[in-house]
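Late entry, evening session. Most of the bench is empty. Finally got around to the prediction I had been postponing all week. Sequence below, unchanged from the version circulated by S.P.
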Amino acid sequence: MTLEEFLGSNSTEKRMETVTQALEELLVAARKQDSLTVGVYESAKLMTVDPDSVVLCVLATDEEDEDDIALQIHFTLLQAFCCDNDINILRVSGMTRLSQLLEEDTEDSSNGNEPRDLHCILVTNPPVQPLQSPALQNISSFCEESRCTDQWVPCLEMQVR
């Protein structure tokens, strides 16, 4: 490995860490502002009704979800819709971390309720008090840079803390 390769990979790793941290900050802030739509079907409904309010689409999977053909078809349709409507998309692995961020309790499962579907999360921009966070700007820049390098759906890995 050359010095340039080493330095390049190191800066890429730092950039990925920065964007992952920005995503975590954005999701927590959006949850507090009630600007999240969680679930594949709920997200599809919102994008049909009001696609202009959506600023980010997060598609989340873990290894066990990779073989779920129905979920992959939903993801393909959601990605196409997002591309048509200029909505930034991120693919994320780390459902456990997403669950932690969104304060998904295991109590929901114990009292008979199904756990929420965290495979698709939309961040919306409320018309009254728009989200103008540095985290959203950081993620938008990352998505734009990724598109410039022909990576239309950038991937991030979220680590459990």
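Two things to note before I forget:
The CA atoms of residues 45 and 51 lie 10 Å apart.
The longest helix spans residues 3-32.
Will write this up properly tomorrow.
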